[in-house]
Write a sequence for this structure.
């Protein structure tokens, strides 16, 4: 087992990638903001199955945080992250903000469609920041595949739409949500919870599973109203949203449409917004 090398500049990154390309090797990219956990490592392992080489980017992207959000205190653990990637990743790309956004930087990538509503409405500018940094990473690394977790379902659809609309030459792979033993979706921000809050947060999974199971009987608005009541009764809340959406376009759905649908939720608990989602059967 060896620790992955770390590069901090685009020329150094491209030099390493070019050497792999010269040997005909496939490259996977796993974009992260660091503070790695088992969910991230599952993405890296998926990248290893999909390609010969795996690049993990670690960059806390200021452009996807609103002024009132937690950019300054977002967990950062560079040495720990590198140790966790031992034997899994070939290279860590960890640029400084001035590398990604040098003086005078004024470009923005904006994707409409699936970015409207939900996180896009609650966090104006968030998906512009995501699309801008991800497009830069795709250009810098030039991967064959990029691996994203399905926990941020709307983000995944925004990235897929960007790749499709801009004819970017890579495949975007969504990896299933990794959960703890009680079903809570893993997140770097779970570290903000107290033990008591963590126990409450773990109730969300059961509520969403019961809701998804009930949607097959129809009357989706009533089922969603009951889910919101269950959230409140469990000590969770307030609810930013809890809705059924088209699994690709993110348009809200009140009844089956013949297309894949997703139950998406964002629930506040103490210092954290819990994001989760599940496929709707049928």
């Amino acid at each position: 087992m060896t620790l992955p090398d770390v590069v901090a500049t685009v020329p150094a990154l491209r030099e390493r990638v070019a050497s792999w390309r010269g040997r005909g090797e496939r490259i996977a990219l796993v974009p992260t903001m660091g503070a790695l956990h088992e969910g991230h490592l599952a993405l890296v392992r998926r990248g290893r199955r999909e390609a010969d080489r795996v690049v993990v980017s670690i960059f806390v992207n200021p452009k996807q945080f609103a002024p009132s959000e937690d950019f300054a205190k977002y967990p950062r653990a560079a040495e720990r992250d590198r140790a966790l990637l031992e034997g899994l990743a070939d290279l860590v790309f960890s640029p400084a903000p001035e590398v990604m956004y040098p003086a005078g930087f004024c470009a923005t990538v904006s994707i409409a469609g699936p970015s409207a509503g939900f996180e896009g409405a609650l966090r104006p500018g968030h998906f512009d920041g995501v699309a801008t940094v991800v497009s830069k990473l795709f250009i810098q690394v030039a991967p064959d595949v990029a691996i994203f977790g399905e926990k941020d379902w709307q983000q995944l659809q925004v990235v897929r739409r960007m790749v499709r609309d801009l004819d970017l030459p890579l495949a975007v792979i969504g990896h299933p949500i990794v959960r703890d033993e009680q079903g809570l979706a893993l997140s770097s921000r779970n570290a903000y919870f107290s033990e008591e809050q963590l126990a409450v947060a773990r109730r969300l999974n059961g509520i969403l599973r019961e809701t998804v199971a009930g949607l097959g009987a129809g009357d989706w608005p009533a089922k969603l109203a009951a889910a919101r009541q269950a959230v409140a009764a469990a000590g969770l809340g307030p609810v930013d949203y809890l809705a059924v959406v088209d699994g690709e376009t993110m348009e809200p759905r009140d009844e089956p449409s013949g297309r894949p649908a997703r139950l998406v939720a964002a629930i506040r608990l103490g210092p954290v917004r819990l994001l989760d989602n599940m496929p709707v059967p049928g």
